[in-house]
C-alpha cells in the first residue's frame, strides 16, 4: 500500500470514528446544570439558542445564538422610516452615483427599489432610519434625530405596507421619538430588562442601514452604562454590533427575542461602522414613550447641584475606601438641594438605597424621577454616613454647562506668599486665595495660575496662616475647593 493510500485510509477511519462519537453524544447527551450568564432558560419567551455539549476538560456548557429563528419570529416588529421635507423633495441629481457611472445600473439591477441614500452627514432633503412597533395599535419607537427637522414621516412595515406617521412627541435629551400609525392587530416587540444584560452576551440588530431594509447584524455587549459627551440622561449600552446610517432607531434584541435597546449612535471617523456602537436602554426609552403618550412632553426631577467625579486621590482625601459617588462642588441658590441642607463637599453615594457608582449615575437617577417626588440621598459628609431627604423640583429647558474659564484675578504685593511643599505661590484676595503660580504637586493636582482657592481640607482659607493651619490638619491627601471662572471644583493635593 503506498503512502497516499495509507493516508486516505487513516483519514477515513478518523472520520468514521468522529461520526460515531457524535452520534453517541446525541443519543446520550451529558447532563449539565450550566446556564447562560443572563439565565436565558428562565426568561418567559422563546430561546433563540442552540445548545452545545460541555467540554470534557472544564465541563462547561455553552449556547450558540440562533439568529435565523430570532429574525423569523421578531423581524415583523421592525419598520423602516423615511422623513421628508415636502417643500424640498430630493432630486435625482442627489444620487450617490451619477447616472452615467458604470456601477449605477449594476446596483439598480440588484436593488431596483432601493432608496437613494445620502452621504453620511449631508442634508439632501430626506432622512432614513428604523423603528420598532411597541403596541398592536401602531405606536412606534425611533430616534428623535431620525425625524427632527422634517415635516412628513412615512413608515413601511415588514410586509411593505406604508403608512403616514403622526409624531406623538420627541425628547432630544434621550434621542427618543414616539410615532403613531393608523393600524391595528400589529405584531409588536417584547420588552426585555437591560439590567440583566452582561458584557459578552450576544445581541442582534435589525434595521435598514444605508436604506437596505431587513438587514440583520449581530455581536456582543461590550459594556454597559456608558456616558457620552453631552448625554447626561442615557446610560448607553455599548456593543460591537455593526450599526450604520439607517440603523438609527432600530431595536437591539437579546437571545430571548426581547428588545433591550434602541440603536442610536456610532463611534466613527469616516461615517461608517468602526466596531463601536451605542444603544439606548429600552427601559429609558419606554419611560420617555409613556410620558410622551400621556402628556406630549418629558418631565424630569431637578436637584440643583454641580457635581464631579470622585477620583482615587479625592476618595483618599475625603476618607472613602473606594472612589465611588458624586461629589458636590456647588449647591445652586434656592434649589431643592439647598433647601434640604446639602453642602459643598458632600458625596452622594446612593439614591433610595441604589448605589451611585460614578457621578454619571446621579443625573440618570434624578432625571428619571418626577418633579415633586421626595427621594432619600445616601451621602458621605466629613467622614460620616447620613441620609438626606430631598423633594425634587422641575427641570427647566436650559442646562447647566460647566465652562472652563480662566480667572483674571492677579494680586501682587504684601499678600503674596509661597508654599514650597505644595509648589504654590498664593496671594490673599480677602476671603480667599488666588494662585499666582503652580508647580510640582500643585500642578500635578491640576491647579493653575488664576485659580481661586476657597477651602483646604474643609476649612476656609484667606491668608498664609489659615492656609498653613489647614494643610497641617489635612493629612497626606488634602481636598482643595477651587473656583475657576463661575464654577467650583475639588482637587486633591497629595503630599510626599
UniProtKB/TrEMBL annotation:
Name all PDZ domain ranges. 292-383
Q: What CDD domains does its record include? A: cpPDZ1_DegP-like (cd10839)
Reactions catalysed, semicolon-separated, are: Acts on substrates that are at least partially unfolded. The cleavage site P1 residue is normally between a pair of hydrophobic residues, such as Val-|-Val
Q: What does the entry list as the binding residues for substrate?
A: 145, 175, 246-248
Coarsely, its chief localization is periplasm
* Coiled coil location: none
Question: Active-site positions, per UniProt?
Answer: 145 (charge relay system), 175 (charge relay system), 248 (charge relay system)
Which interval of the chain is the signal sequence? Answer: 1-20
Q: Which family does it belong to?
A: Belongs to the peptidase S1C family.
Q: Which NCBIfam families does the protein's record reference?
A: degP_htrA_DO
User: What name has this protein been given in UniProt?
Assistant: Probable periplasmic serine endoprotease DegP-like
Amino acid at each position: 500500500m503506498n503512502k497516499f493510500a495509507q493516508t486516505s485510509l487513516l483519514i477515513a477511519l478518523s472520520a468514521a470514528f468522529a461520526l460515531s462519537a457524535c452520534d453517541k453524544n446525541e443519543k446520550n447527551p451529558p447532563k449539565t446544570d450550566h446556564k447562560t450568564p443572563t439565565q436565558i432558560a428562565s426568561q418567559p419567551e422563546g430561546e433563540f439558542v442552540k445548545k452545545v455539549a460541555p467540554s470534557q476538560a472544564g465541563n462547561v456548557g455553552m449556547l450558540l445564538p440562533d439568529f435565523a429563528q430570532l429574525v423569523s419570529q421578531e423581524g415583523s416588529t421592525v419598520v423602516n422610516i423615511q422623513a421628508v421635507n415636502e417643500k424640498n423633495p430630493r432630486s435625482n441629481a442627489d444620487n450617490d452615483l451619477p447616472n452615467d457611472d458604470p456601477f449605477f445600473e449594476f446596483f439598480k439591477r440588484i436593488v431596483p427599489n432601493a432608496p437613494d441614500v445620502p452621504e453620511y452627514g449631508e442634508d439632501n432633503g430626506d432622512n432614513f432610519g428604523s423603528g420598532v412597533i411597541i403596541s398592536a395599535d401602531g405606536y412606534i419607537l425611533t430616534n428623535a434625530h431620525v425625524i427632527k427637522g422634517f415635516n412628513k414621516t412615512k413608515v413601511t412595515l415588514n410586509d411593505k405596507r406604508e403608512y403616514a406617521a403622526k409624531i406623538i412627541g420627541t425628547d432630544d435629551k434621550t434621542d427618543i421619538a414616539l410615532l403613531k400609525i393608523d393600524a391595528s392587530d400589529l405584531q409588536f416587540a417584547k420588552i426585555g430588562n437591560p439590567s440583566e444584560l452582561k458584557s459578552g452576551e450576544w445581541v442582534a440588530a435589525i434595521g435598514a442601514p444605508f436604506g437596505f431594509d431587513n438587514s440583520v447584524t449581530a455581536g456582543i455587549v461590550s459594556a454597559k452604562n456608558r456616558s457620552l459627551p453631552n448625554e447626561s440622561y442615557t446610560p448607553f449600552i455599548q456593543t460591537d454590533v455593526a450599526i450604520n446610517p439607517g440603523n438609527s432607531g432600530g431595536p437591539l434584541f437579546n437571545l430571548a427575542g426581547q428588545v433591550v435597546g434602541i440603536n442610536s449612535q456610532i463611534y466613527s471617523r469616516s461615517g461608517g461602522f468602526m466596531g463601536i456602537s451605542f444603544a439606548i436602554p429600552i427601559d429609558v426609552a419606554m419611560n420617555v414613550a409613556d410620558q410622551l403618550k400621556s402628556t406630549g412632553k418629558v418631565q424630569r426631577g431637578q436637584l440643583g447641584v454641580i457635581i464631579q467625579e470622585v477620583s482615587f486621590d479625592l476618595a483618599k482625601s475625603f476618607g472613602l475606601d473606594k472612589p465611588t459617588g458624586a461629589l458636590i462642588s456647588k449647591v445652586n441658590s434656592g434649589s431643592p438641594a439647598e433647601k434640604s441642607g446639602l453642602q459643598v463637599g458632600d458625596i452622594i453615594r446612593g439614591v433610595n438605597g441604589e448605589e451611585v457608582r460614578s457621578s454619571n449615575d446621579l443625573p440618570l437617577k434624578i432625571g428619571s424621577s418626577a418633579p415633586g417626588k421626595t427621594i432619600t440621598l445616601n451621602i458621605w459628609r466629613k467622614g460620616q454616613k447620613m441620609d438626606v431627604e430631598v423633594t425634587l423640583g422641575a427641570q427647566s429647558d436650559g442646562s447647566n454647562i460647566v465652562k472652563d474659564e480662566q480667572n483674571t484675578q492677579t494680586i501682587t504685593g504684601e499678600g503674596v506668599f509661597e508654599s514650597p511643599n505644595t509648589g504654590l505661590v498664593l496671594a490673599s484676595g480677602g476671603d480667599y486665595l488666588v494662585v499666582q503660580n503652580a508647580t510640582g504637586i500643585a500642578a500635578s493636582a491640576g491647579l493653575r495660575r488664576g485659580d481661586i482657592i476657597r477651602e483646604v481640607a474643609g476649612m476656609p482659607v484667606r491668608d498664609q496662616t489659615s492656609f498653613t493651619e489647614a494643610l497641617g490638619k489635612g493629612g497626606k491627601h488634602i481636598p482643595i475647593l477651587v473656583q475657576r471662572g463661575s464654577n467650583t471644583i475639588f482637587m486633591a493635593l497629595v503630599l510626599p
